[in-house]
Amino acid sequence: MAASPATTASAVLAPPRPDRPCVTELRLSAFAGHRRAAFPLGPLTVLAGPSGCGKTSALRAYEALARLGGGAELGTVFPDPAACIPERARPDAQRRRGFRIGCTADGPEGPVRLDVAVQAEPELRVVGERLSVDGLVLLQTALRDPGRRAVQAAWYTAGPSPVTRGPLPDDRLGTALMPLRVAGKTDGQRRVLAAAEQMLVALRSVFACDPRPGRMREPVPTGTGRLLAGCDNLADVLWRTRDACARRHAQFVAAVRAGCAGPVVDVLAEPVVGGVVRALLDRGDGVRTGLARLGYGELRYVALVLVLLTGSGVLETDPAGEPPGPLQTLTVLADGLDRGLDARQRAQLLGLAARMCERGHIRLVGSVPDASWTAGTEGITVVHLEP
Fold this sequence. Notes:
Blueprint: E1 6-9, E2 22-31, E3 34-40, E4 44-48, H1 55-69, H2 74-77, E5 97-106, E6 112-121, E7 125-133, E8 136-142, E9 150-156, E10 163-169, H3 174-181, H4 187-203, E11 206-209, H5 213-216, E12 220-221, H6 234-241, H7 246-259, E13 266-272, E14 276-284, E15 287-290, H8 296-308, E16 330-334, H9 343-358, E17 362-368, E18 380-384
Parallel strand pairs: 4-17, 4-18, 11-16, 16-17
Antiparallel strand pairs: 1-18, 2-3, 2-5, 5-6, 6-7, 7-8, 8-9, 9-10, 12-14, 13-14, 14-15
Protein name: ATP-binding protein
GO molecular function: ATP binding
Keywords: ATP-binding, Nucleotide-binding
């Protein structure tokens, strides 16, 4: 089912060339239910529309690009590639079908475009990739010989030869390999490296988050202290980070107090028998409430607040793919952002997200069935998807 985006924004979003690279557009040329779709992305973006309009698949495509940018193999990123093929897509004479996704990353080098064509059937492989700036193609790959597990690549040189050619593996993103393949001796090569680095920095450090209250209620073993995508180990994260930053923890407690029923003096974790820890709300006067007693919406609210108030060092992103701290902008992908939340919790969460995104260290792309409750929020981009 195709999606037709229409966009409204209540404020001017980002300067044309932000210091921190960030993804400003997601393109789904042919992916799942989307065809020729392009979604503008601001610091705080909400994808809105009824069930079946493609909100989840759009977030899935964004996460896939992020993982490819981190160097992941194609098979791990798309374990079910057939589900990504657009409906009614017919195979060609060689019985091949696939999908196309891409994005634009803005930053010091200007808008850098990345477009990727993936063959899903009969075997999964990258069959084409293009990295470009201002219409100049800096990297282009194409499948020349289906019998070889490689694509032919050409990247901009602007030296004695205008381009350099060579094979690249067909199971990885070529842009992610450029820092290892390009020497950077000519102006053209340096431009390729700068554009590739901007794209990779913009894509890395993505945290796809969908809290699962059922698992958050149980005590958990102590571990790395890095929050999982389902927030199952929220108690372990609190156990390890509560005393790391008093100011941030005070903000977290204040946000929890604003969105949960009853008094909240503190949010903490304590060890219990068996080498596990559980999370608690300190109600004051010696009264404590375990997270097991909180409602579905309260638990999701607490988890999302924690995500917004922690950095990438606490969230389970790919450490090997994380760019240096001064260049880093964490992007949170939250499918069903308002699922289970009441009106007060939605307002508090949106207000917190707007404040955190305005600072530039975090970006949020969430999906909701109806975005009418976001009206009046400064700096929000609402993208309406239609079935």
